């Protein structure tokens, strides 16, 4: 299992410097999504005092030609702070700052899906849309070999690893525990974690409930924290929806969705109405649910390994092989939420949550999203 050389550097030596006082100055790490729609970038600036609100954070810029976001002849891009979290690596009073990216003309970069998502969420705020996203990921060595797998050959078949305990079943628990605590410190709305079905190294972390735009903000920061934690351990977190070809489960980002009406008495009626709308717009959602317009998910949504078929829409109570699953408790209580099992592990949560609101609450039916003034 190959690990990075940086993981072997002395963390005790580093800690000597991290313990030095920093006076009144604060380190603010600006974080943004790059031109792939999947990768995260970051850089740090010094502030003269601790920022209390977003208004205390200055705009910044970066070289977009190095992040697949601009040409070298016109490369400056703007970083606009949108959400602020505590920094679990440098600790208080230092901050993590999630930013939107604007082009030279102040228009959103192609992979800045947050701005439109926020607009759509604002149109339905009186319905209080709640989201919970179940982020799956796979641990790999720096050589891309699954962490915990034998150097040659394959481990035992799937089965014992889901919520597994023991050295032969649970690999990478240190990463999971460290990431969990980092999320809690940062203020990310993490609600649980477990090892998943795939042999040894597929993990799941659940986030939410978050209302509106907060879901995307919290999930992107959680992904950033996971990458940073994995740096310290010298391994890699992959969000590829099918990291290991063959007879293994893929990695998704199942999305739970509800509105105020769905959560109240008789809410099952509104859940069923939303599922009917989703059935009529299946291909639109497939295109929105991974950054390559469905090509990544085509490797995962085969109709096997607890997935639905990418070409078919289905729904059912407690059915993990359906596009939409209604939890059994929801069917019994006649209210609650539903789970969309189609989003891929590498989805953009802004795109997923926006698509659900457009179809379920704004009643859009066309194959293209409606352009609102």
UniProtKB/TrEMBL annotation:
Cofactor(s) essential for the protein: Mg(2+); Mn(2+)
Catalyzed reactions per annotation: L-glutamate + NH4(+) + ATP = L-glutamine + ADP + phosphate + H(+)
Residue stretches making up the GS beta-grasp domain: 24-106
GO BP term (any one): glutamine biosynthetic process
Cell compartments where the protein resides: Cytoplasm; Mitochondrion
Domain annotation GS catalytic: ranges: 113-373
A Gene Ontology term for the protein's cellular component: mitochondrion
Descriptive protein name: Glutamine synthetase
Source organism: Sinocyclocheilus grahami (Dianchi golden-line fish)
Gene: glulb
């Amino acid at each position: 299992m190959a690990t990075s050389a940086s993981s072997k550097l002395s963390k005790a030596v580093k800690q000597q410097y991290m313990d030095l006082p920093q006076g009144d100055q604060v380190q603010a790490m600006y974080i943004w999504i790059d031109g792939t729609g999947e990768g995260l970038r970051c850089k740090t600036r010094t502030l003269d005092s601790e920022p209390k609100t977003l208004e205390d954070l200055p705009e910044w810029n970066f070289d977009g030609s190095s992040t697949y976001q601009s040409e070298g002849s016109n490369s400056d891009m703007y970083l606009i702070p949108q959400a602020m979290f505590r920094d679990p690596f440098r600790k208080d009073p230092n901050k993590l700052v999630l930013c939107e990216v604007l082009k030279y003309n102040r228009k959103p970069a192609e992979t800045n899906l947050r701005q439109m998502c926020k607009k759509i969420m604002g149109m339905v705020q009186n319905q209080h849309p709640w989201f919970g996203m179940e982020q799956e990921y796979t641990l790999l060595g720096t050589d891309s070999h699954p962490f915990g797998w034998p150097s040659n050959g394959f481990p035992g078949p799937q089965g014992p690893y889901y919520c597994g305990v023991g050295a032969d079943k649970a690999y990478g628990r240190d990463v999971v525990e460290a990431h969990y605590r980092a999320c809690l410190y940062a203020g990310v709305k993490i609600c649980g974690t477990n090892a998943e079905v795939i042999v040894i190294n597929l993990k799941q972390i659940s986030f939410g409930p978050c209302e509106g735009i907060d879901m995307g903000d919290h999930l992107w920061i959680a992904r950033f924290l996971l990458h940073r934690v994995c740096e310290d351990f010298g391994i890699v977190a992959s969000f590829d929806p099918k990291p290991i070809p063959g007879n293994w489960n893929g990695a998704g980002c199942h999305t739970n969705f509800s509105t105020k009406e769905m959560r109240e008495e008789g809410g099952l009626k509104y859940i069923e109405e939303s599922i009917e709308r989703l059935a009529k717009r299946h291909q639109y959602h497939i295109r929105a649910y991974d950054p390559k317009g469905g090509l990544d998910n085509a490797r995962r949504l085969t109709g096997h390994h607890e997935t639905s078929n990418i070409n078919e829409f289905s729904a059912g109570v407690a059915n993990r092989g359906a596009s939409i699953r209604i939890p059994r408790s929801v069917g019994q209580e006649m209210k609650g939420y539903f789970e969309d099992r189609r989003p891929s592990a590498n989805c953009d949560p802004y795109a997923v949550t926006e698509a659900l609101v457009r179809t379920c609450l704004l009643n859009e039916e066309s194959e293209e999203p409606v352009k609102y003034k």
